[in-house]
Automatic annotation (TrEMBL):
NCBIfam families the UniProt entry points to: sce7726_fam
Name under which the protein is recorded: Sce7726 family protein
Length: 212
């Protein structure tokens, strides 16, 4: 694999891996993206796949775990990029950072459809079959981030664990009411850290597909 990791000024960053086939698929892009994330100067604690958010209304393709969870939505050459308008409404509330990873044929639509705070990465294939990922725009904080919606990413047992001394009294509450209670008492930064730690703990305990 060829990797260039300089992020100075957030100029395009290119990494490459040989792939087969005429069209770039989600699977091919995902494999290279995961390798890229693992190779970052500050590597994530874990890279998770297929993370359900907003009570299952959307599924994040790849999520990197740092002090917060960063969502990566992948759209291959034959995927309908227009779907991000619906999916994005859920991602924007559930994650503070979101990046769209798509292909050259979708590049114009990517910048038209993706909110300006989303990062954009464009995948293309070189003449020798190498898949190239180019970082075109850095992700910034979502202005629509919602603590309650973000906490719905967690299972009830994980939410109860965040209640601390109140856990026993909270046993009978629904997930929706638990998220309201936690969100009321917890700041944005603390919510993000708690979600990241819970997702990491879930992977460790259950063997949930992830790359460490």
């Amino acid at each position: 694999m060829q990797i260039q990791l300089s992020m100075t000024g957030y100029h395009p960053v290119t990494i490459g891996e040989n792939v087969q086939g005429d069209q770039l698929t989600d699977k091919e892009i995902r494999a290279v993206l995961v390798d890229f994330l693992k190779g970052r100067p500050v590597a994530p604690k874990a890279v998770l796949e297929e993370v359900r958010v907003h009570n299952g209304n959307a599924i994040a393709d790849v999520v990197s775990i740092h002090n917060m969870a960063h969502c990566y939505e992948i759209k291959g050459e034959t995927d309908a990029i227009s779907r991000i308008t619906r999916q994005g409404a859920f991602y924007d509330q559930a994650f503070q950072r979101i990046t769209l990873v798509t292909t050259k044929n979708h590049e114009r639509q990517a910048f038209q459809l993706a909110p300006t705070h989303w990062g954009v990465v464009v995948a293309s294939k070189a003449s020798d079959g190498t898949l190239m990922l180019r970082y075109m725009r850095k992700a910034t904080d979502s202005p629509r981030f919602n603590k309650e919606v973000a906490l719905l990413t967690l299972w009830k047992c994980e939410l109860l664990a965040l209640c601390g001394v109140e856990e026993k009294a909270a046993q009978k509450l629904s997930r929706a009411n638990l998220t309201k209670m936690i969100a009321t008492k917890t700041g944005v930064r603390e919510v993000n850290i708690s979600i990241a730690q819970s997702l990491l703990g879930r992977q460790t305990q259950t063997g949930w597909p992830a790359t460490i």
